[in-house]
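S.,

As promised, the flavin mononucleotide run. Input:
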Amino acid sequence: MQGAESEMVLSEPERLSPLEARASYREGMAALANSVHIVTTTLGGTRVGFAATAVCSVSDEPPTLLVCLNRESSVYAAFKTATTLCVNTLSASHVEVARRFGGQTSQECRFATGNWTSLNTRSPVLADAAVVFDCRVVSRTTINTHDIFICEVVAIFRSLSPSALIYFNRAYREIG
Ligand SMILES: Cc1cc2nc3c(=O)[nH]c(=O)nc-3n(C[C@H](O)[C@H](O)[C@H](O)COP(=O)(O)O)c2cc1C
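Predicted complex:
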């Protein structure tokens, strides 16, 4: 690539093996600084949740966001039939919450930390989150390994002095 800084590295997934392309893509994605969210729902009255960075605004009229979930994750069975979910965007003080909800822990262990309540949909709400989007799932699409949940926001609960937990370069950073 002409004019690129000498520290830059170019890779072209189409010219790589699937394994190399995956590793290269993941390296690239590690350079994105993302908010960390705990996405929750309930299944038969049991609370279920996972940590996610793949959450994105879709539109503000009506208020709509999307969430991407790996179909191989342990929580997929609960989310695939969910009609409601809640996106809890973490504050700077929530590193331990992020770690627990990031995988390889039981749901009991995940909800044992943090102050959990609920709003309109009854999905678990983290009381001191930076912001909470309580949602109704309006559609779901499968792309490759993931499902994309399109969600209409029915309630927003936000901190008046938010801080942020950012995941960047495979590490948590606290802002504010
Ligand atoms: C910082 C971070 C961000 C994550 N983002 C996502 C995401 O956007 N979508 C997803 O399906 N999994 C994501 N995960 C992984 C899920 O949190 C994890 O697969 C889920 O908790 C289920 O874990 P288990 O299958 O080991 O029980 C993320 C994990 C971490 C630590």
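The radius of gyration is 17 Å. The pocket of flavin mononucleotide is lined by residues 36, 50-54, 68-70, 73-75, 101-104, 167 (CB under 6 Å).

- D.
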